[in-house]
């Protein structure tokens, strides 16, 4: 049986990271990828990755869920998953998840991950941060989520923006613990 993974993409800048995560998960033969996009993400994806990117993204997913479909499978705790990544995670989505405000399918699916004690990785995307952002990050962390701002690992000597995006995406997928061998090689000192 394939392991189900949910990928949520919000409207924050950084759509290329969500696209790369979809490519990584879509390439794993033992993963069933469930995709949910906020309405704002569609605009950001088109702006940052081009008008064809949305179609390519949806084609990668095994299942595409409408953000307004609160009755979708991923909205229920009885639908078992290996976890969820929200990449990028806007401060609006982070605030909704932190407060349990499940007004769309992305925030409901994230809420389900928390209540079922499943992995939830949030690539919180904003800078600089104010106290409200930080408190929301603390709140979701206390609930069990992993907050992973998409920060470049310059010590890995990336040669391009594409390498930075790939590194961040692989690190996020590694946090789900799907692979025996991590996608990112361990630091050797």
Describe the overall structure.
- The protein has helices spanning 15-26, 39-49, 53-60, 91-99, 105-115, 131-143, 161-174, and strands spanning 3-9, 31-37, 63-65, 83-89, 120-124, 146-147.
- By secondary structure, it is α/β, with parallel strands linked by helices.
- The chain has a single domain (3-174), classed as Flavin prenyltransferase-like (Rossmann fold).
- 39% of the residues are buried.
Short characterization:
It is built from seven helices and six strands; from the N terminus they run βαβααββααβαβα. With 189 residues, it is an alpha/beta fold. It has one domain: Rossmann fold.
Question: How is this fold's topology laid out?
Answer:
Elements: E1 3-9, H1 15-26, E2 31-37, H2 39-49, H3 53-60, E3 63-65, E4 83-89, H4 91-99, H5 105-115, E5 120-124, H6 131-143, E6 146-147, H7 161-174
Parallel strand pairs: 1-2, 1-4, 2-3, 4-5, 5-6
List segments where confidence is low: pLDDT < 50 over at least 5 consecutive residues: none
The largest beta-sheet arranges its strands as 3-2-1-4-5-6
Shape: globular
Characterize the largest beta sheet: strand count, sense, and whether it forms a barrel.
6 strands, parallel
Query: Would you identify the CATH H-level superfamily?
Result: Flavin prenyltransferase-like
Radius of gyration: 15 Å
CATH-level-2 architecture: 3-Layer(aba) Sandwich
The CATH C-level class name: Alpha Beta
Structural class: alpha/beta
Give helix % range: 40-55%
What is the tally of beta strands? Answer: 6
Measured distance between first and last alpha carbons: 38 Å
Q: What is the oligomer described by this structure? A: single chain
The number of helices is: 7
């Amino acid at each position: 049986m394939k392991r189900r993974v949910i990928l949520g993409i919000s409207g924050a800048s950084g759509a290329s990271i969500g696209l790369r995560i979809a490519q990584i998960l879509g390439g794993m033969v033992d993963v069933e990828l469930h995709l949910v996009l906020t309405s704002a993400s569609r605009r950001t994806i088109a702006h940052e990755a081009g008008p064809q990117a949305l179609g390519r993204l949806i084609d990668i997913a095994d299942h595409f869920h409408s953000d307004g479909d609160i009755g979708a499978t991923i909205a229920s705790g009885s639908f078992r998953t290996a976890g969820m990544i929200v990449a990028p995670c806007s401060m609006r989505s982070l605030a909704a998840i932190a407060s349990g405000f499940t007004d769309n399918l992305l925030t409901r699916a994230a809420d389900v991950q928390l209540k079922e004690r499943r992995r939830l990785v949030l690539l919180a995307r904003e800078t600089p941060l104010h106290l409200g952002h930080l408190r929301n990050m603390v709140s979701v962390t206390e609930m069990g989520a992993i907050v992973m701002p998409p920060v470049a690992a310059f010590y890995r000597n990336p040669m391009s923006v594409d390498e930075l995006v790939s590194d961040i995406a692989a690190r996020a997928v590694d946090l789900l613990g799907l692979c025996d061998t991590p996608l990112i090689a361990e630091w050797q000192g």
